[in-house]
C-alpha cells in the first residue's frame, strides 16, 4: 500500500485529477476558487509595472539618439504650431462655453454620461503567442468588474474587461481571436455586422468585419462603431475603419478588414468605462 | 533539496516576469519565445522527468493564475510536457547540447499545437496551416535558441544539486 502512494504514476494521476477538478470549478467565473489568482497577481503587480516601464525606458533611451536631429527640426515646426494652436484654443474656449450653455439648455447628455472613467496602465501582457489579452493596474478595489468597456484616450474601442483580481484586471482586446463585438457601419444605409478578431490579422493589429448585410454597400474608408446591441458596449464608440473588402468563396459572401482606431502595438494607457448599472455578473469568459 | 526548490522558484518567477513584460519588445516576426515551457523541457531533458514535471506544473499554474481562462489548464499541460520530455531523457545522450536543442524544438511544436487545438476546437474555422507556419514553427525555433543558453546553466545547476546531495551523506 505504501508503495502505491510513493509510486510516481499514482502522484501524477492524483495531481491530474485534482487539476481537472480545479479546471471544472474555476470555469465558473463566480467561483470562489478564482480568488487564488490574487496570490500571484497582487505581489507581482508592482514588479510587472516596473519591468514594463523599464523596458519602455530602455527602448526610449536608444530611440533618443536616433531622434535628436529629427527633434530639432520638429521643435521649430512645433513652436510655430503652438502659436497657431493658442489662437485656436482661445476661439475654442469661447465656443465651448457657448456650447456648454446650449447643452444645459437642451438638457443633452454628454457622450458617456452614464459612465465614470478610470485610467489604467498596462503592466503585463499574456505570455505565449495566441491571445491578445493584457493586464492593467486597476482591479476590484477600484470598482472594476468583468465586461466593462475599455477605450483609448482618443475614444477608440480597445475591448472589455475579461476578469478581475483585487488590484489588477485582464483586458481582452477586440483583435483577440475570441472577441466578437456587435458593430454598426456608420453611414446612411448602414447596418449591423460583427467585428471579430482573427489570428492572422492580429499579427498586424487588424481585425475583420463579418456578417455584413447584403444590402449594405460597404466601401474602404467606412467607419465602424459599436452598435450598443449585446449590452456590454455603449452605442457609438468608434471601433475602426474599413481598409479592404474581401470576397469569400461563396457568391454573396464577403468580409471587410478593419483598422482599429486604437493602435494596439503602441498602447500604454487605457480608460475603463465604469457603469453603475453593470453589477459584474455578466457572462464573461472565453 | 532546498537549494533546488529555491533555484527553480527564482527562475520560474523571473521568467514569468520577463515573459509578460519586456519580452513583448523582443518579438521577431511577431512571435516571442515561450521561456517557461523551454525551461520545463530543458529541465526535463537535462535532469529528469520528476523535476521537469514539477517545473512544468508550477510554471503552468503561474500562467493560469495570471492570465488563464480557467485555473489548471496550463499547469496540467506543463506537467505532462515535463513528464514526456523527461521520459525521453533516459534514452538519449543528454549531455549533448544539440540533442537537447533538437528535442526542445520538437516538444515546443507538440506543446503549442496542443494549446492551439484545445483552444480552438470549438471555434469552427481553424486556420491550422497559418498557426503552424507563422506561429508554432518560429516560436519553436526561438525556444530552441533559448535552450542553447539554458542548457549549460542547468547542467551546472545539476552538478551543484548532486554535489550538495552527496555531501550531506558523509
Number of strands of chain B: 0
Which structural class do the helices and strands of chain B define? mainly alpha
Mean pLDDT of chain A: 82
Oligomer: heterodimer
End-to-end span of chain A in angstroms?
43 Å
Q: Portion of residues in helices of chain A? A: 25-40%
Key terms:
heterodimer; A: 286 residues; 6-stranded antiparallel barrel; B: mainly alpha
Architecture overview:
The complex is a heterodimer of chains A (286) and B (170). With 286 residues, chain A is α+β, with helices and mostly antiparallel strands. In chain A, 34% of the residues lie in helices and 26% in strands. Chain A has helices at residues 2-6, 8-26, 38-106, 199-202; strands spanning 115-125, 133-136, 149-151, 157-164, 169-173, 180-185, 192-196, 207-210, 223-226, 238-247, 254-260, 269-275. In chain A, the strands form two sheets. In chain A, strands 1-2-5-4-3-12 form a six-stranded antiparallel β-barrel. A six-stranded antiparallel β-barrel of chain A has the order 6-7-8-11-10-9. In chain A, a hairpin with a 6-residue loop joins β10 (238-247) and β11. Chain A is globular. Chain B is mostly helical and 170 residues long. Chain B has six helices and no strands. Chain B has helices spanning 2-20, 35-46, 49-67, 73-89, 97-120, 128-169. In chain B, α3 (49-67) runs antiparallel to α4 and α5 packs across α6 (128-169). The longest helix of chain B has 42 residues, at 128-169. The two termini of chain B are 16 Å apart. The chains are: A alpha+beta (286), B mainly alpha (170). The A-B interface holds A 8, 12, 15-16, 19-20, 22-23, 26-27, 33-34, 36-37, 39-41, 44, 47-48, 51-52, 54-55, 59, 123-131, 133, 135, 170, 177-178, 199-200, 203, 285-286 and B 16-22, 24-25, 30-32, 34-36, 50, 53, 57, 62-73, 75-76, 79, 83, 112, 115-116, 119-120, 123, 127, 130-131, 134-135, 139.
